[in-house]
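Appendix B.2, paired examples.
Example (i):
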Amino acid sequence: MPLIDNLKNEFSFIKGNYAVLVGSWILIDFAMELPATYYALYVLQLGATETIIGMIGLFSFLALASMQFPGGYLADKFGRKWLISSMTFGVALCYIFYAIAPSWHFILIGAVLMSLFNSTYQPALMAMIADSLPPERRGMGFGIIMLITSASTTPGPIFAGLLYNWFGLEQGMRIGYSIVVVLFLIAAFLRLLRLEETMASTQKPSLSELLRSYPIAMKESFGVWKKVPRSMFYLFLSTAFIMFGIASVNLYFVVYAVEELLIDKAIWPFILTALPVTMIVLSIPIGKIVDKINRKLPILAAYVIFGFSMWLFVEGDLPRLFVSLVLVGAGQVMIGSAFSALQTDLTPKEQRGKVNGFTNFANYIVMALGSLTGGILYEHFSPQLPFLLAMVLIVPSFILTLVLVHEPERREQ
């Protein structure tokens, strides 16, 4: 049948490494979203304050930043597979600290260790996805990742709400984090057994080489900007402003909703579900727009949508909160699909690990400062200030992208 043949042709790129990464990502995304629903309230119950939550975010993002240079360098030199599979095991074990935490100090330890493992393999993960997608399907490819991972996260808040109703906040969160450990281990075994290396020439890693690689990796990651178009640098710079704003509010959505807007804790998971449902609905259509029409316009549209969504959340009641999270979901799909596709278009294959490493490093430093800033503003000045700051920072991001970022005439393979 023509329709079936067209669908097979449209989605023929979903195979091999790409299919394995999507499958494991489903497990990981559901696992992470399950306890994330009440994360900030859980840490507050363990004795923290809003500023301490921001401080945990600060150290977590600094740890994420610390391994981005060697992560990108190692991904290009030693290959993608061993980094992705081994570090996923490490992340799984770190969540044990969250499950058994008697105080917020254990959350801090788990967050830092998890971030170290995560940061080491993130450049390899994004590089392997880019390696596995044909140029004409990159928008669809990254859009489908957002679609499938959004579908896996949709039940996350609902399950978190059920655990809260059955066991209370603290015990429900401990059970949730135990589930996270199990699902991460399954994903790690799947990646270990099914992924195939995409680099043609790689070296066997050793501990001494890992230690020696840091200064070399840092030098090469800074030097990579001489080997990629200027538009790639301006694209990175524009997102740095957005990342600061997102980090300043990200941990405080649930706290603001419950404490300032007086939303019932049991209702919050159902409101939060609007975000992944929106991403499910829009992922494939926006992915096709990114492939067929333009990469840059969806990024600009996402910036405007994010600003409006922050205003709605601050002025929120129940309907406005719902609309705000729908807009956040739409913005995430737009910027996720278009940014990843445009970055891949602009970056040669042999430089992608280092570009991912540098951009991740810088963004995590920015997000570390944003997280701490948001916590201080929320606790000591006004709960609305972090959200207003996020809105203001959209302006330079929009201008930089509009004026200085240009799509390439020829997309990198």
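Example (ii):
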Amino acid sequence: MLRLKPFGLAVGVLWGGGCFLVGITAMFGWGDEFVKVMGDLYWGYSPGIVGAVMGGVWGFIDGFIGGFLLALLYNLFAGE
């Protein structure tokens, strides 16, 4: 059985951290297309420090919800 909140937090930290790092590297031209696409979904996400923080926050929220739901479905299908 997966614990919902810790799994959601783990996925949120990984996805939010990844979005933040890509936002930072996009300042130098690496991953800027990813940031442009995700910027359509995550308000304020853009290359740069402030944009990377915004992307990290949105990514954490998105990752937490997705991880929580994934753990919930896993527990449901596993019969636990």
